[in-house]
């Protein structure tokens, strides 16, 4: 049974014109010795396909180069090449078409990193960033690049990952027709329904604002992390990614929390002393009147409600605030999920309406962070399921969160089975089913990284599998299960193109080293959506990213590609395997990395110069692909700035 792939129009992803431009290097070609050879973490394969000139050029640390940025690569960094050599240089905040002077700060195997010193001529598609923090905040690094240009760059990256990591050939006409264009988001600001700010002991100010006077001399701050620092917080009074009402709450808190009389101290990530860790603001809608509702969640290191009382009194006066929560997290980790949760005011969850259904959202449950784009996504998923609507089909909703995808499909299905690791999300999912009068959905808590041979025995063979994993993608055990299952239809929704491409490679082509045979002929991937920017900060991405911030700042690619969260750390309690009635669980392993040798970092490296990615890997199958790829750019959100 093969339902029609939704036609979203085919558009070829052409390289940007500047990619073909020549690039000049102001310094004479340095005769530094050629690199001694890339380390395994730097380059995925041992083959070096760089042009010979590049191999003889190697810049020195401290050297100044004149460069032109060609395109945006992983983490939203500008990818530049040194003229006549093809030598690759990465530069943070360099934008396509920009000509600039950069100083080499680091040499790394096949490429170097530079710091931008001076822009000689601006990038193309330049716009004036509307946010005053755009150049300093770790969040919106490319707000000065037009949204259209961001979308193009994003599309190009996804395309490269799918071809280089996923090993789908552009020469395959079938593949070419299934790569669908990005679906941009209509709203480019104020779209996030969840923001997470950090309290900091050290107020971080960009160099040109160091003289600024602070009303409070204690230097404490509340805001988003400075780029690259987990311990420095840029003080923010207003963030354009969240709603006006959420900004009102932020302002009210900012106006008083540093008052010494209140005795509130920010948590110090070095000494581990202090009280206030994070401030999470979530917004939803009252399902009766459609009015906005806000949840304010204070994450603290201990339970001291008397300390929070003055803040609670002030913010509960804001009409939109219907819930004030306190998550108590005593660990030294930087997550927002508390071991204990208290309701300080109002209700313990807020509601949101999606595709005509009402959903309860607790402080720690995953919910798509861009509600309007979630509507678009869910509609697209529904189209892709090709549901007959006669109530005869079984749907397996993997990584179901609060059950949103499965529940929006349940009306046309025989039964929906949802699996999810977070207990609170599962209770939300069950409550959501009940409140929406849906009786043909079963939600089961279980860890899909630990599926055993019994997995699959507690539900009938599904007609449609939807898999929507968090950034690390699917565990090999789950991939093996899916290959054995051979469901007629599978929809892979992803927030990380790198791990998604890797999983698709395994699913479609197999892997000799894993003793896996791909199932191209039996699995029909109709659809792969890319919504990176939708995904921020559910329970799945609360670990500070390697770039040192909470990645809660609307920077899609940057945050999501630099994070490889430890599943177990995030959930507080030890998750059980995704098998009903399982009695034994291995102790949770740290930083579960389901695919040895295919870490996210390694995958990201393949994006470097795309030509680095070797095609020389053994395959188990070579059949033509029936993969249909739908790439959606959910909002700007990613401004690379956002996924
Ligand atoms: C990207 S979210 C998708 C949620 C849901 N499909 C939606 O659209 O709202 C991924 C979900 O996978 C869950 N998750 C992460 N790791 C898991 C695991 N090992 N086993 C089961 N669920 C997991 C997270 O808690 C999160 O709810």
- The quaternary organization reads as single chain
- What are the distinct ligands in this entry? S-adenosylmethionine
Structural class: alpha/beta
Work out the radius of gyration: 24 Å
Strand line-up across the major sheet: 7-9-8-6-10-11-12-13
* Number of helical segments with 4 or more residues: 13
Low-confidence stretches: 1-49, 520-576, 579-601, 604-643
* Strand content range: 15-25%
Overall pLDDT, averaged?
A: 72
What is the rounded distance between the termini? Answer: 33 Å
Helix content: 10-25%
How many beta-strand elements? 23
The backbone outline, from C-alpha atoms, is globular
Major beta sheet summary: 8 strands, mixed
Describe the secondary structure blueprint for this structure.
Layout: H1 52-56, E1 64-72, E2 78-82, E3 87-91, E4 99-108, E5 111-121, H2 147-164, H3 173-178, E6 194-200, E7 203-204, E8 221-225, E9 233-235, H4 244-256, E10 276-285, E11 292-300, H5 305-315, E12 321-328, E13 340-346, E14 349-354, E15 357-362, H6 371-385, E16 394-398, H7 404-410, E17 415-420, H8 423-435, E18 441-445, E19 464-467, H9 476-485, E20 489-494, H10 497-509, E21 510-511, E22 516-517, E23 525-530, H11 556-561, H12 567-571, H13 600-605
Parallel strand pairs: 3-5, 7-9, 11-12, 16-17, 16-19, 17-18, 19-20, 20-23
Antiparallel strand pairs: 1-2, 1-4, 2-3, 4-5, 6-8, 6-10, 8-9, 10-11, 12-13, 14-15, 21-22
The structure holds S-adenosylmethionine.
């Amino acid at each position: 049974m093969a339902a029609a792939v939704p036609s979203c129009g085919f558009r070829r992803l052409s390289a940007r014109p500047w990619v073909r431009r020549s690039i000049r290097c102001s310094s004479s070609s340095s005769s530094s010795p050629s690199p001694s050879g890339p380390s395994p973490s730097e380059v995925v394969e041992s083959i070096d396909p760089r042009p010979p000139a590049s191999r003889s050029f190697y810049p020195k640390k401290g050297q100044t180069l004149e460069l032109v940025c060609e395109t945006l690569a992983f983490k939203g960094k500008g990818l530049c090449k040194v003229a006549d050599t093809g030598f690759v240089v990465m530069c943070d905040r360099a934008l396509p078409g920009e000509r600039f002077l950069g100083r080499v700060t680091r040499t790394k195997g096949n490429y170097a990193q530079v710091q931008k010193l001076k822009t000689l001529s601006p990038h193309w598609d330049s716009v004036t960033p509307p946010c005053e923090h755009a150049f300093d905040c770790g969040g919106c690094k490319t707000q000065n690049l037009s949204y259209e240009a961001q979308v193009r760059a994003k599309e190009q990256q996804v395309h490269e990952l799918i071809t280089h990591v996923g090993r789908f050939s552009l020469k395959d006409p079938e593949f070419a027709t299934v790569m669908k264009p990005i679906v941009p988001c209509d709203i480019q600001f104020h779209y996030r329904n969840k923001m997470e700010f950090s309290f900091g002991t050290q107020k971080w100010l960009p160099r040109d604002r160091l003289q600024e006077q602070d009303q409070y001399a204690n230097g404490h701050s509340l805001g988003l992390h400075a780029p690259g620092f987990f311990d420095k917080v840029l003080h923010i009074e207003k963030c354009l990614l969240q709603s006006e009402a959420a900004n009102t709450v932020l302002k009210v808190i900012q106006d008083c929390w540093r008052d010494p009389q209140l005795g509130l101290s920010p948590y110090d990530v070095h000494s581990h002393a202090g009280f206030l860790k994070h401030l999470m603001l979530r917004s939803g809608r009252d399902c009766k009147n459609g009015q906005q509702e806000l949840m304010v969640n204070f994450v603290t290191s201990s339970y001291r409600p008397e300390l929070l009382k003055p803040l609670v009194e002030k913010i509960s006066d804001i009409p939109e605030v219907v819930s004030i929560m306190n998550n108590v997290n005593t660990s030294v980790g930087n997550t927002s999920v508390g071991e204990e949760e208290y309701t300080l005011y109002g209700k313990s969850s807020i509601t949101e309406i999606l595709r005509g259904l009402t959903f309860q959202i607790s402080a720690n449950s995953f919910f798509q962070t861009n509600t309007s784009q979630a509507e678009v996504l869910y509609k697209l998923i529904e189209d892709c399921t090709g549901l007959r609507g006669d109530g005869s089909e079984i749907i397996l909703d993997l990584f179901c969160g609060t059950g949103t995808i499965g529940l929006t499909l349940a009306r046309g299905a025989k039964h929906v089975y949802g699996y999810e690791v977070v207990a609170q999300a599962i209770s939300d999912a069950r409550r959501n089913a009940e409140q929406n009068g849906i009786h043909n959905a079963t939600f089961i808590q279980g860890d899909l990284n630990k599926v055993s041979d019994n997995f699959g025995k507690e539900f009938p063979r599904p007609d449609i599998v939807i898999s929507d994993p968090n950034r690390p993608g699917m565990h090999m055990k789950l991939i093996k299960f899916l290959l054995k299952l051979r469901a007629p239809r599978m929809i892979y929704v992803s927030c990380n193109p790198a791990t998604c491409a890797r999983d698709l490679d395994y699913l479609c082509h197999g892997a000799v080293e894993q003793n896996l045979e791909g199932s191209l002929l039996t699995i029909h991937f109709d659809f792969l959506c890319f919504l990176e920017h939708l995904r921020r900060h559910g329970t799945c991405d609360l670990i500070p990213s390697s770039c040192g911030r909470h990645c809660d700042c609307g920077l899609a690619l940057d945050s999501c590609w630099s994070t490889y969260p430890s599943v177990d750390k995030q959930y507080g309690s030890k998750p059980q395997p995704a098998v009903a009635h399982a009695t034994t669980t291995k102790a949770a392993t740290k930083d579960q990395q389901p695919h040895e040798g295919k870490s996210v970092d390694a995958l990201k490296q393949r994006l470097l110069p795309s030509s680095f990615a070797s095609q020389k890997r053994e395959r188990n199958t070579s059949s033509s692909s029936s993969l249909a790829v739908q790439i959606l750019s959910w909002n700007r959100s990613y401004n690379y700035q956002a996924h």
